[in-house]
Amino acid sequence: MDLKFNQNEDRNKLLLSDLRRKLNEVYLGGGKAKIAKQHDQGKMTARERVDYLLDPKSEQIEVGAFVGDGMYKEHGGCPSGGVVIKIGYVQGKQCIVVANDATVKAGAWFPITAKKNLRAQEIAIENKLPIIYLVDSAGVYLPLQDEIFPDKEHFGRIFRNNAVMSSMGITQISAVMGSCVAGGAYLPIMSDEALIVDKTASIFLAGSYLVKAAIGESIDNETLGGATTHCEISGVTDYKSKDDAAALDTIKNIMDKIGDYPKAGYNRKKGVKPKENPEDIYGILPSSRAEQYDMMEIIKRLVDDSDFEEYKAGYGQTILTGYARIDGWAVGIVANQRKVVKTAKGEMQFGGVIYSDSADKATRFIANCNQKKIPLVFLQDVTGFMVGSKSEHGGIIKDGAKMVNAVSNSVVPKFTIIIGNSYGAGNYAMCGKAYDPRLIVAWPSAELAVMGGNSAAKVLLQIEKASLKKKGETITEEKEKELYDKIKQRYDDQVSPYYAASRLWTDAIIDPKDTRKWISMGIEAADHAPIEKPFNMGVLQV
Fold first, then answer.
1. 3-class state of residue 124 by DSSP
2. Less crowded by CB within 10 Å, the N or C end of the chain?
3. What is the dihedral of CA 33, 88, 246, 108, to 10 degrees?
4. d(CA 428, CA 426)
5. If you average pLDDT over residues 106-111, what whole number do you get?
6. How confident is the model at residue 482 (pLDDT cuts 50, 70, 90)?
7. Residue 487 in contact with residue 421, Cβ under 8 Å?
8. Rounded to whole angstroms, what are the CA distances from 278 to 16, 282, 330?
9. Residue 1 pLDDT
10. Is the predicted pLDDT of residue 377 greater than 60, yes or no?
């Protein structure tokens, strides 16, 4: 029995248990009392609507479950950003579903809500994936209106995207299942087809109170913008449904009739499970982000039949590159090797660090995958690029720039899994959020930051000490330790995968065993969108 393996396993399974506990809290939205109120109104909750709509026993993945985690505490919080987003199947057709959660501030839009909705639309646009909106929202959260209203990535961008998606031929279906007010009223009506639930739903630019204040007209909300009004008088909506279930059934019937889509043509065979047991991942992955391990052992537990055709195995060994299949889909894998390696010249290289040779290898491999139309999977556990005079004189900056260039200009779909460290420019070169991965997820063991906690805390401590000395304060050893611990704790909170997920720097925190599902469903989504431009890295510094 391997003691270290068991210690790692215990630690990683504790992280997984914590993930499940946090998810169960998130699933309650605004709380049990608010859920009961929704039911009393004859309405399903957002999660119940999504689950009813998606095909039973079919695969599904949730985007942004932890969005808003720990944010807006002074406003009572905003679990999941007040909106539920899942990629799944309706009548066998893959799509993305966006459902306002009325248990969270009546479904009002916080700044992070807008960001999450835009992420859903981005996924739909990139993959030409049908999108279904289940609307139940009181509109913009007014106390924070200045952070959500006028800018390019704010609320108005949603409706701009509705128009763009329509011109691209991307299917959009909306069901108004509660409030739909002010500017938000444009979203369902800019969709291809709009449904409205009788008695419990309404659409208007201004509600009865505002109408009374603005023009003196007295009218109730149902007459102003209820289902009968919009289905029989204004013609704003296309279908009137008696309740939530009927509306969702109508969406199912519409989706059932949609024709097939052009394929990108990514290679797929019948998927097979890994030969090596994926459960072993918990024991292989160290509990400390500073410890070494062999990334090849992780790869063997993620790919079909544990079969990995390594590219340039003996060169640039701190990055592993090679071809494999995941659930039958052909993929090219770029992964950080986390153990110390020895080059043919006898040089020792640190695991998790990108050197000139590994950057060159990765650049060439990414180009190969683009040439062969093979989706790319990045497995991140990176501390950054190698520093020091030898690396600088050897041109690490230009070699790193070539890799960043290749990642930036890649036209095949990219998927990023943050396994451990994701620090500094290493995050960029290994396809961080800024580099347009179709999906980016983290394991509970992940850390995202400019640099590791110890290094950052030491730098910040020196700055703080210098500032205090200028003020004439004496720094004792006890005071220095107290400052360091305080700085380290604050920094550790920020490198947590939950901090990143709450701000949508990643799409989800997942059980490592779900990695294959996320990649497979992601490539299936990407297969809806044929590649439309050639791969061209442009000018390279050689």
1. helix
2. N
3. 40
4. 5
5. 92
6. confident
7. no
8. 14, 8, 19
9. 57
10. yes
Rounded to an integer, the average pLDDT of 61-68 is 98
Per-residue pLDDT band for 540 (boundaries 50, 70, 90) equals confident
Question: How far is it, in rounded angstroms, from Cα 424 to Cα 444?
Answer: 19
Would you say how long the chain is, in residues?
Answer: 542
- The tokens for 428 are 């960029």
pLDDT for position 141 = 85
Which residues, other chains included, contact 375 with Cβ-Cβ below 8 Å and sequence gap of 6+?
Answer: 266, 329, 330, 331, 332, 369, 412, 413, 414, 415, 523, 526
Structure tokens at 416: 């990023």
Place of tokens 């059934």: 249
CA–CA gap between residue 355 and residue 387 (Å, rounded)? 9
Per the structure block, which two tokens stand in for 53?
């709509």
User: What are the percentages of helix, strand and coil residues in the chain, rounded to 5?
Assistant: 45, 20, 35
Residues 425, 408 contacting (CB under 8 angstroms): no
Q: Determine contact, residues 297/284, Cβ cutoff 8 Å.
A: yes
Closest CA to 134 of 247, 253, 252: 247
The rounded Cα 176 to chain-centroid distance in angstroms is 26
Q: What percent of the chain has pLDDT over 90?
A: 76
E-state strands within 157-273: 172-181, 193-197, 202-204, 239-241
d(CA 96, CA 403): 32
Q: Is 537 helix (H, G, I), strand (E, B) or coil?
A: coil
Phi, psi of 241 (to 5 degrees): -115, 145
How far apart are the C-alpha atoms of 146 and 108, rounded to whole Å?
A: 14
Give per-residue pLDDT as tens, 257-276: 999 999 999 999 999 999 99
Across the strands, what pairs with 204?
181
DSSP 279-344: GGHHHHS-SSTTS---HHHHHHTTSGGG--EESSTTSSTTEEEEEEEETTEEEEEEEE--S-EE-T
What contacts 532, CB < 8 A, 6 or more positions away?
none
Torsion-angle region of 511 (φ positive above 0: left; ψ -120 to 50: alpha; else: beta): beta
Phi then psi dihedrals of residue 540, to 5 deg: -115, 140
Sign of the torsion formed by the C-alpha atoms of 91, 92, 95 and 98:
positive
Judged by DSSP in three states, 167 sits in helix
SS3 state at 54:
coil
Condensed to tens digits (0 to 9), the pLDDT of residues 113-145 reads 999 999 999 999 999 999 999 999 988 887 888
Q: Which amino acid is at 102?
A: A
Give the distance, in angstroms, between the CA of residue 357 and the centroid of all CA atoms in the same chain.
31
Q: How far is CA 145 from the centre of its chain?
A: 25
Q: How far is CA 494 from CA 360, 478, 498, in A?
A: 32, 25, 9
Beta strands 341-342 and 348-349 are: antiparallel
Whole-model pTM? 0.94
Distance of CA 117 to the CA centre of its chain: 12
Average pLDDT, the chain: 93
- Pick from 230, 177, 181, 172: which is nearest to 210 by CA? 181
Exposed, middle or buried: residue 379 (CB in 10 Å: 0-12, 13-18, 19+)?
A: buried
Strands 384-385 and 439-442: unpaired
